[in-house]
Amino acid sequence: MTEKTFDMKGALRYGIHAEIEAKNFYHTWAESVDEEHLKKELSALSDWESEHEASLMNYYEKLFGAQCPIDPNMVVEPELHVQTKDFGDTTSLLRVASAAYLSEMRAMEFYERLEKESAGETSVMFRKIKDMEKEHMDITKKRYMKIREDVVGFRAF
Description:
The protein is mostly helical and 157 residues long. The protein has one domain (8-66, 79-152): Ferritin, CATH 1.20.1260.10. The protein has four helices and no strands. The chain has helices at 8-32, 36-64, 90-117, 120-152. Helix 1 (8-32) runs antiparallel to helix 3 and helix 2 (36-64) packs antiparallel against helix 4 (120-152). The longest helix has 33 residues, at 120-152. The protein is elongated and about 50 Å long.
C-alpha cells in the first residue's frame, strides 16, 4: 500500500478558494446589517480573509511560477453560501453565525495541518494564518453567543 503524498499545490488552491468564500461571506453579511459596530467587525473579518487570500496567492505564484487558477464554481464551504434574506431573520442569523464559527474552526485546522506539512518560512506563514483563523473563530463564537442570547433571552452558558 503506497502512502499518499501531501499535495501543496492542491492545498494552496483549496485554501485560496476558502479565503475567497469567507471574504465574500463576511462582506455580504456586513452589507446586510445596520449596526455600525457590527458592520465594522464583519468588514474587518472580510479584509483579513482578503489578506490571507493575497498571501496564499503570492506563495502559490512563488512556488509554482503561475497564478492560481480560480474556479468560480468551486465550493469549499457550502454553509457560507447563504441567501441575503437569511441575514434578516434572527433564527436564520443564528445558523449563519454558527456556520461562520465552524468555517473558521475548519480553516484553523486546515492551516495547522499545512504548518505541520511545511518547514521554515512556509511553516511560519501558515502558523500566522492559523493564529489569525483562531482569532476569527473566537470572534465568530462571540457573535454566535450574542445572537443566541438575544433569541433565548438570557446567557445560558
